[in-house]
């Protein structure tokens, strides 16, 4: 990863708004970055047989290098497509394409002005003779301008449903949105009378199970990505504190600073612990998987920013300069914290899950 | 060290056997019965009786070796038993310090006779163990202690004072650390002894805490005579023993000890307490309160996940033993976060109770008075932070004025000098 995508290249990508990774993505797919959630008969597979955990490790690696790419976007969609295979509907061809890296896909779930409510979409899917017509707007769609396919969560009037829609379908308009993460672009996607055929349906109408699976995978991958970034930043900061001298002694000889490092190191360990526990619970389809993901996302989402901001503080003024790499990590973690459920959303969810 | 019995039965089989045995032999206590921090004679009699019952049923000392009266099984067996025992009346009073700290230390550092006699008796419910470590004149600087043991023929005579000895009044034996060489630097002149708590010359006083509990004791030694066989480890090698003891203590306080049987309450708190406070105050549907509850649910899970990960990593050699300080530090944080959340949710109900009873006052208000207990007991969190930064992260060590200086020449605070040699 360091060779393929050093931080200097992340900055170059930033200049193009996080685009221009497609050539590299095909090689990532060859390395198996898209294969872990898909079954072998559809071109996927994981050596350890634990695809979710392996994918979380990959996301950590990605986080260490804050690289662009479609690891989150494509794998979230793959999780949904693979889970939906069980409900009939055959998306084998698309799965093969995504696994092969020829196509990338992204989940269109958020809607303008609305919070994280994946099971209550406002975008209308109106039944017509030969399928559905989609009308509405999605936003905060990762890689909206790059994706070949959108997985659109919509309301059919008879319950939530998801449709796989090619980005070049008639009636779709994509506009880029400003993104805090220089290497991870987002966009608004407008659907005006977009016709989708019955075979575009992913999973059964009215069943939230596939949506929930996508949300769980999203949460695990975000936490893992944050953990990778935290590892790298913490290492950078401890090295800095050992090298830098003030008043004739190294920064890391001051007890006031040592104690902050001790807190951060403890929280870092806790971030890894809860992320791995969430990955394991999702891997095993545990009945507590939703709980485990919300525990991890609510904890890692907040704690990571405390750690990162303290690392900025310990760097001194250079920590808030454009040329220092810290902000690349801070941007990624802040974006991960906010999307697919904020820590506050996940805390309310935990209360719902435990106060029944 | 936990030594495993290679021919051990599988965890699942052990679990099923434990489930059946517990249902047949142990009692489910009534709600609200446990969790007290003041245990009287009757509770101790009961704890010994329950321990005896576990022993006779073949479920005592699960991770202790068979030759010392245990079962020689793995921490996974112990975890399974603890899960099955949840909800049953268990001799929880014996977990800390008897098994998790004292017996564990004797197992690592004691002589054959000491291991066989003390660990065996504890597993059979016949004896309770405690620690005589801290002193009235010393805080975190344990090695600066001034209780002295002087040679007298083959044996020793002990004089001095100890404090913060948990449950000492109920104990039979104590691991007592004393100074045996005043010309050596502080860590190198200490010796660990096994002292009968009822020996002539030992006077004990209970220390009352702000919440009314009195689990701690203070002891005074006036020419207490001990035989040569009372020494644990080497003469003047007491710091090595104490270091093992402190690791066991941190592990136990952090919640990661394989020698603990039955569910421990972390800092006396359970996450279920928080929703209960919300229900009693009628705020369970308040979104802000639900976020507080969710945050504490997360914290309590993360604490358990951290303990599991760190215990495994230390076992695998991925992290040094000093990493037990992670568990200790995070457990304190989680406990205090819960105290604070409860105080916010309870509002005025935490400080003014009902007409006849304290209501939430006892659960929330008084607990707030003891909030710092979780970052003080078992060594302050400031020391944990030193340990993590120096021994896990390898940062420079703090300056110590007493390093490599004969202890006799080390400056001590007022009061301490009155007792010095």
Automatic annotation (TrEMBL), chain B:
Q: Which cofactor does it need?
A: FAD
The protein's matches in InterPro entries, at most eight in alphabetical order, are given as: Acyl-CoA_Oxase/DH_mid-dom (IPR006091), Acyl-CoA_Oxase/DH_mid-dom_sf (IPR046373), AcylCo_DH-like_C (IPR036250), AcylCo_DH/oxidase_C (IPR009075), AcylCoA_DH/ox_N (IPR013786), AcylCoA_DH/ox_N_sf (IPR037069), AcylCoA_DH/oxidase_NM_dom_sf (IPR009100), Mycobact_Acyl-CoA_DH (IPR052161)
Residue span(s) of domain Acyl-CoA oxidase/dehydrogenase middle: 130-224
Acyl-CoA dehydrogenase/oxidase N-terminal domain location: 20-126
One Pfam family from the record: Acyl-CoA_dh_M
Q: Which SUPFAM superfamilies match?
A: Acyl-CoA dehydrogenase C-terminal domain-like, Acyl-CoA dehydrogenase NM domain-like
Q: Which residues form the Acyl-CoA dehydrogenase/oxidase C-terminal domain?
A: 236-393
Q: Which UniProt keywords apply?
A: FAD, Flavoprotein, Oxidoreductase
Give the matching PANTHER family: ACYL-COA DEHYDROGENASE (PTHR43292), ACYL-COA DEHYDROGENASE FADE34 (PTHR43292:SF4)
Q: Which family does it belong to?
A: Belongs to the acyl-CoA dehydrogenase family.
Protein name, entry field: Acyl-CoA dehydrogenase family protein
State the species of origin.
Actinocorallia libanotica
């Amino acid at each position: 990863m360091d060779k393929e995508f050093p931080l200097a290249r992340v900055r170059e990508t930033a200049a193009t708004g996080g685009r221009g990774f497609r050539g590299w993505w095909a090689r990532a797919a060859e390395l198996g970055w898209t294969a872990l959630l898909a079954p072998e008969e559809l071109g996927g597979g994981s050596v350890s047989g634990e695809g979710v955990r392996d994918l979380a490790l990959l996301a950590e690696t990605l986080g260490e290098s804050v690289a662009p790419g479609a690891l989150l976007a494509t794998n979230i969609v793959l999780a949904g497509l693979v889970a939906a295979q069980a409900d009939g509907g055959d998306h084998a061809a698309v799965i093969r394409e995504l696994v092969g890296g020829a196509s990338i896909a992204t989940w269109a779930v958020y809607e303008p002005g609305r919070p994280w409510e994946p099971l209550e979409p406002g975008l209308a899917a109106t039944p017509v003779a030969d399928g559905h017509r989609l009308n509405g707007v999605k936003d905060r769609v990762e890689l909206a301008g790059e994706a070949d396919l959108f997985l659109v969560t919509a309301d059919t009037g008879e319950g939530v449903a998801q449709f796989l829609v090619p980005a070049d379908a008639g009636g779709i308009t994509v506009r880029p949105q400003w993104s805090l993460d220089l290497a991870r672009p987002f966009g608004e996607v407008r659907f005006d009378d977009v016709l989708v055929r019955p075979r575009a349906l992913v999973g059964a109408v009215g069943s939230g199970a596939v949506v929930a699976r996508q949300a769980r995978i999203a949460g695990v991958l975000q936490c893992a990505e944050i953990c990778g970034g935290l590892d790298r930043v913490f290492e950078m900061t401890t090295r800095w504190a050992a090298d830098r001298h003030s008043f004739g002694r190294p920064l890391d000889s001051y007890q006031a600073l040592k104690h902050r490092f001790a807190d951060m190191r403890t929280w870092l360990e806790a971030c890894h612990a809860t992320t791995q526990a969430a990955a394991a619970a999702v891997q095993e389809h545990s009945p507590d998987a939703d709980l485990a993901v919300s525990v991890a996302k609510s904890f890692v989402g907040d704690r990571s920013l405390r750690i990162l901001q303290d690392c900025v503080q310990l760097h001194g003024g250079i920590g808030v300069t454009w040329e220092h790499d810290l902000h690349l990590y801070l941007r990624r973690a802040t974006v991960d914290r906010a999307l697919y459920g904020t820590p506050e959303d996940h805390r309310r969810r935990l209360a719902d899950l435990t106060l029944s | 060290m936990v030594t495993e019995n290679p021919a051990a039965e599988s965890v699942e089989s052990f679990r099923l056997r434990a489930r059946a045995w517990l249902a047949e032999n142990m009692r489910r206590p009534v709600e609200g019965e446990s969790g007290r921090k003041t245990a009287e004679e009757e509770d101790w009699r009961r704890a010994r009786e329950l321990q005896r019952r576990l022993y006779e049923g073949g479920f005592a000392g699960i991770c202790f070796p068979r030759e010392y009266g245990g079962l020689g099984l793995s921490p996974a067996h112990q975890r399974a038993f603890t899960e099955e025992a949840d909800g049953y009346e268990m001799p929880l009073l014996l977990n800390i310090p008897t098994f998790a700290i004292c017996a564990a230390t004797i197992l690592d550092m004691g002589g054959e006779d000491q291991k066989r006699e003390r660990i065996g008796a504890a597993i059979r419910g016949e004896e309770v163990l405690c620690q005589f470590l801290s002193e009235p004149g010393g805080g975190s600087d344990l090695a600066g202690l001034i209780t002295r043991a002087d040679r007298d023929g083959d044996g020793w005579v002990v004089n001095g004072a100890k404090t913060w000895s948990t449950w000492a009044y109920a104990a039979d034996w104590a691991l007592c650390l004393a100074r045996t060489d005043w010309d050596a630097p502080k860590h190198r002149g200490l010796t660990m002894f096994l002292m009968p708590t009822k020996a002539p010359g030992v006077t004990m006083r209970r220390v009352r805490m702000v919440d009314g509990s009195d689990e701690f004791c203070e002891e005074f030694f006036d020419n207490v005579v001990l035989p040569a066989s009372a020494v644990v480890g080497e003469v003047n090698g007491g710091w090595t023993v104490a270091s093992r003891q402190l690791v066991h203590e941190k592990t136990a306080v952090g919640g990661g000890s394989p020698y603990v049987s039955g569910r421990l309450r972390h800092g006396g708190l359970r996450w279920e307490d928080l929703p209960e406070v919300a229900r009693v105050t009628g705020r369970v549907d308040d979104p802000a309160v639900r976020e507080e509850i969710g945050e504490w649910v997360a914290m309590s899970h993360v604490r358990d996940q951290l303990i599991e990960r760190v215990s495994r990593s230390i076992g695998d050699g991925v992290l040094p033993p000093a990493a037990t300080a992670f568990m200790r530090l995070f457990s304190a944080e989680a406990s205090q976060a819960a105290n604070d959340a409860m105080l916010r949710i309870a509002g005025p109900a935490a400080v003014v109770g009902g007409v006849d009873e304290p209501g939430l006052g006892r659960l929330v208000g008084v607990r707030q008075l003891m909030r710092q207990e979780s970052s003080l007991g078992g060594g302050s969190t400031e020391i944990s932070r030193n340990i993590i930064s120096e021994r896990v992260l390898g940062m420079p060590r703090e300056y110590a004025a007493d390093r490599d200086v004969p202890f006799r020449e080390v400056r001590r605070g007022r009061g301490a000098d009155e007792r010095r040699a």
